[in-house]
């Protein structure tokens, strides 16, 4: 698997009682709020990358000990990259799955604005790299397979980006139940309101406006771009669709899980 030098693997020991999130920027907002029972202080005063830091970033070492317990971390690692101490820990995982066609589109724009990633080339070129796993964190199918087959039992919750877009309060309820937080309906609604795309885009601590331009250039493409499901329809033609479907279907042949979306 290709890993860009930026995402240097850090030598880290996972302690019990850490929540790891395989997923999106959205979780860096939702999780701290669920864990704090809806207290907005941290999400309004601490930037998201320090509030729920990335496991794969060297910065983690500087901030991890200062996080309130239980800690929330995020990662894009496949399961095989998790340190051995993770396997025997009690850390819980919320794995956010998203329609791979939308991941491709989102990743294409991210490669345009992130200075530490290769230029994506044309959409066609990028699709081939994506399907071959010649991008950071490798093949999407390998990633999903690794976590689906990880056998973490009740330590892992699978949730889709699409269900979060469709009904955010219900999704927050699923997450809070999974973490054994007994949040009132009022708190769930408050968190959902704060985690809407519009609120996050207007939160300086979450919209990456504090991220230096040399890493991400919001002038090229906004990091928080649309926050919708199904944007692939604006980018795929029928050839792209046929190619994408045939590769992904073949890669998942024989797997004992099915995808919650149609690839058509
Ligand atoms: C959960 O919270 C509600 C009030 O929001 C309370 O009535 C209920 O007893 C609590 N349940 C548990 C198991 O703590
Ligand atoms: C981030 O939020 C601040 C404060 O609301 C706003 O001024 C700025 O334009 C936002 N930046 C982006 C890139 O959305
Ligand atoms: C699915 O298959 C994997 C091996 O590919 C296996 O480890 C796992 O136990 C299976 N899961 C279920 C729910 O059958």
What structural keywords apply?
four-stranded parallel sheet, Rossmann fold, alpha/beta, 264 residues, binds 2-acetamido-2-deoxy-beta-D-glucopyranose, globular, 13 helices, 41% helix
Shape assignment: globular
Structural class: alpha/beta
Please give the order of strands in the largest beta sheet: 2-1-3-4
Which regions have little confidence, pLDDT < 50, spanning 5+ residues? 1-18
CATH hierarchy: architecture? 3-Layer(aba) Sandwich
Q: What is the number of helices?
A: 13
Bound molecules: 2-acetamido-2-deoxy-beta-D-glucopyranose
**Which sequence of SSEs, written as H and E, runs from N to C?**
EHHHHEHEHHHEHHHHH
Classified by CATH, the class is Alpha Beta
| Cα-based radius of gyration, to the nearest Å | 18 Å
EC number: 2.8.2.-
Protein name: Sulfotransferase
GO molecular function: sulfotransferase activity
Transmembrane segments: 12-35
Quick structural overview:
This protein has 264 residues and is an alpha/beta fold. It has helices at residues 25-35, 41-45, 48-51, 60-63, 84-87, 100-113, 123-132, 140-148, 161-166, 168-178, 185-194, 197-201, 238-251, and strands spanning 18-22, 71-75, 92-97, 156-160. One 2-acetamido-2-deoxy-beta-D-glucopyranose binds next to loops.
């Amino acid at each position: 698997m290709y890993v860009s030098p930026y995402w240097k693997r850090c030598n880290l020991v996972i302690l019990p009682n850490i929540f790891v999130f395989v997923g999106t920027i959205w979780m860096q907002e939702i999780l701290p709020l669920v864990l704090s029972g809806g207290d907005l202080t941290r999400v309004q005063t601490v930037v998201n990358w320090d509030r729920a830091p990335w496991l794969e970033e060297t910065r983690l070492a500087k901030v991890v000990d200062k996080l309130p317990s239980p800690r929330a971390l995020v990662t894009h690692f496949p399961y095989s990259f998790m340190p051995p101490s993770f396997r025997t820990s009690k850390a819980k995982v919320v794995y956010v799955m998203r329609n791979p066609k939308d991941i491709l589109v989102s990743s294409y724009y991210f490669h345009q604005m992130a200075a530490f990633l290769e230029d994506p080339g044309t959409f066609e070129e990028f699709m081939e790299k994506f399907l071959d796993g010649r991008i950071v964190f490798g093949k999407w199918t390998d990633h999903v397979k690794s976590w689906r087959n990880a056998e973490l039992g009740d330590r892992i919750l699978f949730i889709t980006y699409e269900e979060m877009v469709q009904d955010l309060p219900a999704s927050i309820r699923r997450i809070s139940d999974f973490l054994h937080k007994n949040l009132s309906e009022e708190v769930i609604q408050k968190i959902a309101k704060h985690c809407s795309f519009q609120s996050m885009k207007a939160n300086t601590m979450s919209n990456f406006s504090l991220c230096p331009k040399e890493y991400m250039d919001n002038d090229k493409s906004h990091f928080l771009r649309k926050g919708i499901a199904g944007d692939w329809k604006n980018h795929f033609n029928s050839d792209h669709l046929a190619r994408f479907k045939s590769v992904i279907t073949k890669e998942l042949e024989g797997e004992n899980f099915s995808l919650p979306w149609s690839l058509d």
